[in-house]
Specification:
Shape: elongated
Distance between the termini: 38 Å
Number of strands: 0
Number of helices: 2
Oligomer: single chain
Length: 83
């Protein structure tokens, strides 16, 4: 249990450091200081869009897998074969 907590804590710390360093580097390379808010907003949307759409895409994908397995099982049962 201690190993799990230690690993999780280290991963969370590394992820937090990486996020802050990425944002600091991004701020340093902004093309226009007057439009920094807009540019950071676009970067934020680009970063979080995948996290927002991922569960939706995964849910649809999993639903297709479950439906295909259900059809397979019905076909096997209809043929009299054992599962």
């Amino acid at each position: 249990m201690l190993v799990s907590w230690t690993g999780t804590s280290l991963a969370a710390l590394a992820f937090g450091i990486d996020g802050h360093v990425d944002q600091a580097l991004f701020i340093d390379v902004l093309p226009d200081e007057n439009a920094a808010g807009r540019d950071l907003g676009v970067a934020n949307i680009a970063t979080n869009l995948g996290q927002a759409l991922g569960p939706i895409i995964a849910q649809n994908h999993n639903a297709r897998i479950v439906a295909a397995r259900s059809l397979e099982e019905r076909a096997i049962r209809g043929s009299g074969a054992e599962l």
